User: Which sequence fits this backbone?
């Protein structure tokens, strides 16, 4: 089968390497590639669609500098889509943050479903989802400059208003303007390090390490006990052999007979072997 690009203007077949139609000059970028059989017959069950990927059409993984302690960049190569999420550590501080992300394909920051913010005598009510773009960047800066001591946010847990402000500042600095809020990501991660979530995580990790250490110590102790048992068992086997065979009519012989008859015999009787 040959791959051909059909010109949308004149209908002529062109090679897949052609950027423009060789007959009329029409651009072929992004045009679907058709599979043509040598005999001219087409089998519907074997038809496939191949789209020519061009650098102009493909966005690819964004080359952006971000703090990996705070953010996670996810790129879907199949869909050619990329988003900048908050890291799992930061999301663990406030469940609502799992909805916050920047979509590179659409060039906007989505801040979930915040409905109402009350701060310093002003009430902000949002009737739609908050999407931050270049055109309304002043709204994000308003969030960045909220007074955490005089601020209530409908979807954010009470007492975590400052955390919301830090998240907004971190996104602002990372995506829109690197010269502003330069300490936002450091403060956000420091907030995490002093949180109950981090403390609980540390305690669980320490408990896991202690359990592993205890398990290793138990295994070592078990191996030591087993080694002693094996040594004593060998001694009880070797001494009777030496006493009764190698050194007859000596104290080893009498000691060996005593072990064989009295000690071993007593053990066997105790076990029910008369």
Assistant:
């Amino acid at each position: 089968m040959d791959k051909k690009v059909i010109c949308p203007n004149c209908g002529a077949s062109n090679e897949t390497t052609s950027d423009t139609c060789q007959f009329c000059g029409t651009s072929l970028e992004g045009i679907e590639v058709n599979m043509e059989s040598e005999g001219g017959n087409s089998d519907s069950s074997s038809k496939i669609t191949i789209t020519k990927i061009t650098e102009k059409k493909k966005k690819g993984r964004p080359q952006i500098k971000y703090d990996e302690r705070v953010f996670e960049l996810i790129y879907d190569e199949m869909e050619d889509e990329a988003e900048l999420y908050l890291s799992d550590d930061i999301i663990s501080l406030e469940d609502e943050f799992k909805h916050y992300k920047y979509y590179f394909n659409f060039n906007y920051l989505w801040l979930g479903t915040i409905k109402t913010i009350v701060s310093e005598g002003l009430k902000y009510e949002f009737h739609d989802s908050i999407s931050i773009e270049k055109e309304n960047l002043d709204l994000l800066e308003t969030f960045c400059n909220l007074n955490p001591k005089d601020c209530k946010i409908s979807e954010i847990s009470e007492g975590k208003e400052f955390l919301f402000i830090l998240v907004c500042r971190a996104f602002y600095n990372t995506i829109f303007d690197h010269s502003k809020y330069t300490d936002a990501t450091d403060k956000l991660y420091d907030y995490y390090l002093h949180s109950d979530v981090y403390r609980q995580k540390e305690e669980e990790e320490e408990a896991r390490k202690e359990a592993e250490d205890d398990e290793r110590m138990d295994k070592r102790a078990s191996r030591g006990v087993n080694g002693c048992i094996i040594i004593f068992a060998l001694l009880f086997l070797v001494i009777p052999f030496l006493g009764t065979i190698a050194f007859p009519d000596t104290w080893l012989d009498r000691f060996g007979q005593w072990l064989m008859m009295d000690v071993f015999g007593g053990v066997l009787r105790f076990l029910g072997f008369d």
